[in-house]
């Protein structure tokens, strides 16, 4: 017994000694984490590898963690490359930014995923890519940075619409814009403009609140959005608070803007000389002289007494002011992000400006260890002073058509009412068009973890877009006959979304990784519109509806639709190298015929990480290689709310109500269907060069068309799903770390995209569909230009010539020339969409300096200048002419492409390729140069960092395009045309980033 007691005492002493030794080895590891610029990183995570021991850095980047020296610490932070490092007593750790796309985490529908293990094709930009680009809309900040994504602002107006095409066209007659999803909320993107030019509803977003933008380009990624994913999906994620001491940031910038390009026009002397010559050649000199006398308003037009530069009046120097702040932080339970922003943009077009305020609050709170609730709430208000659409006489840039011998204003300062066309200054002085957009988005959510591997999310979201328009026209406004008129409209559009889904995420036996999502979603949309017009005002000081003597017109409408959806997705990875993904969504919509209310949208994809195989695993050159492929079906539901219904419209007569048959119903009408495939690879060399290459093909069938009906049916047409198109091409993204040294880094990102979008079949046995100057023809590009081919000028008599292009018996085209326009046949001569797009961004840091610039280019597209038949006609009309008309034919033997000047003679002014021009360009899209003050210089100010910067947009453009700008298009929804369309703005700004 005594021996047993001694043994127990000895064992107890050994145990105590062992515990003491163990405790002695576990020490408090302290350290500080910095970025490569030497600034501390708050909120970085430090994990003792293989354990549950976790720590986070404070506001000053400091941390403390219990660990043994030599144990491995895993250090991570959003946007930084994860680092594994042995623990030591006092550590200073520098994290590198993720310049390699393969190391990023991308947002997918209802979750996130590592790009390295993704089988999808997703393009991404983060806050640092867009937050200092001085543009009023978020989309413009993305230009040139995303492979396969073409972004074009309609024109240089501050409220100009934005066209985005993801991998070419997926429709002809239905919607072509992607679905935008903000923090899980499908955003309202309806254009509610009443003045002919579109507005951009996404003007309501500010870049300072955005953490990242992920564009889902292929079917594998977008199929989780089913019937609304065919045009791609843009996922916008806003910033969230991080655990640690609170941070406060301020950004201020001020800039000036000017047009990227101005056209050259004739001065007063040149204009008179040309008109007189044209009058003599047309034997109509007397009437020309009489009109010149009238246009000059009594001044000496023969000697150039009056010269008005109308272009200079239409343009103005723009100004941009941006101010924003953000406050973020939190602890283990509660995290917060609060931001506000102000933007004041005075446009380059006279009388066009924007004022916007935005505010956001994102909160999350951990009620229990396994239960988290949160709220995202934002509000914005955008006030836009607008001008009329490009096709209106009263829009500023149409003033370039005025005669330079006409005074803009009279001696008393009032606008000259006796110009060739309506003087837009009359509109400036006596009218206004004011649009206010208010947007409220909110989301409340809860996340409950049943198990570490199983959680349930329930989200309720709301999006409200409210817009009012007020158009006042005083008694001296152009075309006014009622002593003033006011038009006022109001539209409220709401989106309610309820999403509930389970997420399962688990690795079994360290080889089998599963991630599954299954859920349902309910989306209800409601829109209510009203407008009213009032006329006969006592004077111009009364410019609201109640100031008029008669309310003479009013309209109102109300509409809604509902989507009910179920969805599921499974990701499986074996041994971290064989990847598989399957997803399906079932969508039902009230928009479609009762026989086709529901549709299924499946997608499959697979990947093989070849570099994980033994024969490549330890290769120091080829450090990563993944092969991938995907297939899926998507839909396009943007066909309007009642396209499938039999409709009647009101038709009152003699103060009696009545109804008239308006539209034939089609119970089988459904969404356009798009089948997409993608094959590609992702590879990395020496951990410095990353290349991603893909081939894609999108086949859309069941296109929505209005098919003609016999007159006896009572309706002109019926909506049917007929026709097919195909978009295909290649994408390449190359990221390189050119130089990586302690005080100097240089990274490059380059992308290249090809695209062909062709018509495969059309209604009525592939009958051509001609719309204005474009045609949709089976086998040709979508909306190809369809024009008579201009052949130049007859050097003997100055006649304009055209190619006949009639069909010879052998099927070839007759290339004989004729001066008779009626003898020439229209042919397909161009494409309104580019076939090659590219972007290149370089990011350079040297000590405390940072330098970033992006070049963007497009090739293969053409623009038709529909205003050319007025402004480049060698004085066929009284419009001022472009300076190239000085090269007109004047005598036999002259070789030129500008015909003889013949007033009213229609000598080459007809629609033809004379006014069609290639729009290829390369543009320095944006450039930023910054300097961060040394910490010693601000150590006593309470600041953590202070950075000064210069930034510019559209600084240089290289192009042979003869118009205002190769990206300017008319804003009345005509495809591929320029019609007095304003060029984009060249903006230069100075700013400061302040962080506390």
Describe what you observe in this structure.
With 996 residues, this protein is mainly beta. It has 2 domains: 2-97, Sandwich (Immunoglobulin-like); 139-260 and 315-366 and 376-409 and 417-510 and 522-788 and 827-866 and 913-995, Maltoporin, Chain A (Beta Barrel), CATH 2.40.170. It contains 10 helices and 53 strands. The strands form 11 sheets. The chain has a 22-stranded antiparallel β-barrel. The protein has a 5-stranded mixed sheet with strand order 10-15-16-13-14. A hairpin with a 2-residue loop joins strand 8 (105-108) and strand 9. The longest helix has 24 residues, at 2-25. It starts with a helix and ends with a strand. The model is unreliable at 13-25 (pLDDT under 50).
Kindly summarize this structure in a few lines.
This protein is mainly beta and about 1000 residues long.
Provide the descriptors you would attach to this structure in a database record.
single chain; 996 residues; mainly beta; Immunoglobulin-like; Maltoporin, Chain A; five-stranded mixed sheet; 8% helix; globular
Topology:
Blueprint: H1 2-25, E1 26-35, E2 45-48, E3 54-56, E4 62-68, E5 72-76, E6 83-86, E7 90-95, E8 105-108, E9 111-114, E10 122-126, H2 127-130, E11 149-153, E12 162-166, E13 179-182, E14 185-186, E15 210-216, H3 219-222, E16 233-238, E17 244-259, H4 268-281, H5 285-295, H6 310-314, E18 318-330, E19 334-346, E20 353-368, E21 371-386, H7 424-430, E22 431-451, E23 454-473, E24 485-508, E25 512-535, E26 550-574, E27 578-589, E28 598-609, E29 622-636, E30 647-650, E31 659-663, E32 672-685, E33 689-701, E34 704-708, E35 717-721, E36 724-740, E37 744-754, E38 756-761, H8 763-766, E39 769-771, E40 774-776, E41 784-787, E42 790-793, E43 800-803, E44 817-818, E45 827-830, E46 836-846, E47 849-859, E48 862-865, H9 868-871, E49 916-918, E50 921-932, H10 935-938, E51 945-959, E52 977-978, E53 985-995
């Amino acid at each position: 017994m005594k021996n047993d007691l001694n043994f127990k005492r000895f064992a107890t002493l050994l145990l105590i000694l062992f515990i003491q030794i163990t405790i002695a080895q576990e020490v408090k590891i302290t350290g500080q984490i910095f970025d490569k610029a030497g600034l501390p990183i708050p909120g970085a995570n430090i994990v003792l590898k293989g354990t549950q021991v976790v720590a986070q850095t404070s506001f000053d980047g400091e941390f403390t963690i219990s660990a043994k020296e030599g144990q491995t610490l895993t250090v991570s932070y959003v946007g930084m490359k994860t680092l594994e490092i042995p623990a030591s007593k006092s550590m200073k750790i520098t994290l590198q930014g993720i310049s390699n796309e393969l190391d990023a985490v991308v947002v997918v529908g209802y979750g996130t995923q590592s790009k390295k293990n993704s089988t999808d094709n997703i393009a991404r930009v983060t806050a640092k890519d867009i937050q200092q680009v001085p543009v009023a809309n978020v989309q413009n900040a993305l230009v040139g940075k995303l492979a396969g994504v073409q972004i074009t602002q309609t024109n240089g107006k501050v409220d100009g619409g934005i066209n985005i095409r993801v991998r070419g066209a997926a429709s002809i007659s239905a919607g072509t814009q992607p679905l935008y999803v903000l923090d899980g909320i499908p955003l309202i993107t309806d254009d509610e403009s009443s003045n002919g030019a579109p507005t951009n509803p996404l003007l309501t977003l500010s870049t300072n609140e955005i953490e990242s933008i992920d564009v889902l380009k292929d079917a594998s990624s977008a199929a989780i959005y089913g019937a609304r994913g065919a045009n791609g999906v843009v996922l916008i994620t806003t910033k969230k608070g991080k655990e640690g001491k609170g941070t406060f940031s301020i950004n201020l910038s001020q800039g000036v803007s000017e047009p990227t390009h101005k056209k050259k026009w004739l001065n007063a002397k040149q204009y008179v000389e040309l008109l007189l010559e044209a009058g003599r050649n047309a034997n109509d000199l007397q009437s020309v002289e009489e009109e010149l006398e009238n246009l000059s308003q009594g001044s000496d037009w023969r000697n150039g007494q009056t010269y008005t530069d109308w272009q200079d009046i239409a343009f103005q120097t723009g100004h941009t002011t941006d101010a924003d702040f953000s406050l973020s932080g939190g602890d283990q339970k509660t995290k917060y992000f609060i931001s506000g922003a102000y933007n004041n943009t005075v446009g380059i077009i006279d009388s066009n400006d924007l004022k916007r305020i935005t505010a956001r609050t994102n909160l999350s709170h951990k009620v229990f260890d396994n239960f988290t609730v949160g709220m995202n709430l934002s509000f914005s208000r955008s006030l836009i002073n607008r001008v009329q659409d490009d096709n209106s006489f009263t829009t500023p840039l149409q003033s370039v058509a005025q005669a330079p011998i006409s005074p803009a204003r009279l001696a008393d300062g009032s606008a000259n009412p006796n110009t060739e066309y309506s003087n837009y200054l009359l509109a400036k002085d006596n009218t206004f068009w004011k649009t206010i957009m208010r947007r409220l988005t909110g989301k409340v959510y809860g996340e409950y973890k049943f198990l570490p591997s199983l959680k349930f999310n329930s989200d309720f979201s709301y999006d409200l877009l409210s817009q009012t328009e007020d158009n006042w026209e005083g008694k001296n406004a152009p075309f006014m006959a009622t002593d003033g008129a006011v038009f006022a409209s109001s539209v409220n559009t709401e989106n309610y979304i309820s999403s509930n889904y389970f997420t399962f995420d688990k690795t079994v036996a360290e080889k089998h990784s599963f991630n599954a999502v299954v859920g349902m979603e309910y989306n209800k949309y409601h829109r209510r519109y009203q407008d009213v017009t009032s006329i006969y005002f006592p004077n111009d000081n009364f410019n609201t509806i109640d100031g008029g003597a008669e309310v003479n017109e009013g309209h109102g409408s109300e509409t809604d639709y509902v989507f009910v959806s179920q969805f599921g997705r499974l990701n499986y990875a074996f041994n971290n190298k064989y990847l598989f993904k399957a997803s399906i969504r079932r969508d039902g919509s009230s928009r479609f015929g009762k026989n086709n209310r529901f549709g299924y949208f499946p997608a499959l994809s697979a990947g093989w990480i070849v570099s994980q195989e033994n024969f490549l695993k330890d290769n120091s050159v080829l450090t990563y290689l993944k092969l991938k492929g995907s297939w899926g079906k998507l839909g396009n539901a943007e066909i309007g709310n009642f396209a499938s219904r039999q409709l009647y419209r009101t038709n009152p007569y003699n103060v009696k109500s009545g109804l008239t048959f308006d539209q034939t119903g089609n119970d089988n009408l459904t969404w356009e269907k798009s089948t997409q495939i993608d094959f590609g690879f992702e590879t990395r060399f020496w951990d410095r060069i990353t290349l991603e290459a893909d081939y894609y093909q999108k086949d859309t069938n069941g296109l929505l068309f209005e098919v003609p009906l016999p007159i006896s049916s009572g309706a002109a047409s019926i909506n049917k799903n007929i026709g097919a198109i195909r978009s295909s091409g290649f994408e390449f993204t190359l990221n390189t770390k050119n130089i990586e040294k302690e005080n100097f880094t240089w990274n490059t990102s380059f992308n290249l995209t090809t695209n062909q979008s062709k018509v495969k079949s059309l209604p009525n046995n592939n009958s051509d569909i001609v719309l204005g100057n474009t045609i949709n023809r089976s086998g040709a590009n979508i909306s190809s230009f369809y024009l008579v081919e201009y052949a130049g000028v007859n050097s003997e008599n100055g006649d304009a010539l055209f190619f006949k292009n009639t069909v010879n018996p052998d099927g070839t085209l007759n290339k004989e020339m004729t001066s008779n326009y009626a003898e020439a046949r229209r042919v397909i001569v161009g494409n309104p969409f580019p076939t090659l797009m590219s972007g290149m961004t370089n990011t350079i840091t040297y000590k405390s300096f940072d330098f970033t610039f992006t070049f963007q280019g497009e090739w293969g597209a053409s623009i038709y200048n529909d205003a050319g038949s007025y402004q480049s006609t060698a004085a066929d009309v009284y419009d001022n002419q472009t300076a190239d008309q000085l090269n007109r034919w004047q005598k036999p033997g002259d070789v030129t492409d500008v015909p003889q000047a013949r007033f009213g003679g229609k000598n080459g002014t007809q629609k033809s390729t004379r006014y069609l021009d290639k729009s290829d360009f390369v543009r320095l899209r944006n450039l930023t140069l910054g300097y961060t003050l040394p910490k010693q210089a601000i150590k006593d100010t309470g600041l953590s960092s202070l950075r000064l910067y210069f930034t510019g947009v559209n600084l240089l453009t290289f192009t042979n395009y003869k118009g205002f700008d190769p990206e300017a298009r008319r804003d009345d929804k005509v495809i591929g045309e320029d019609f007095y369309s304003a060029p984009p703005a060249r903006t230069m700004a100075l700013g400061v980033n302040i962080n506390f």
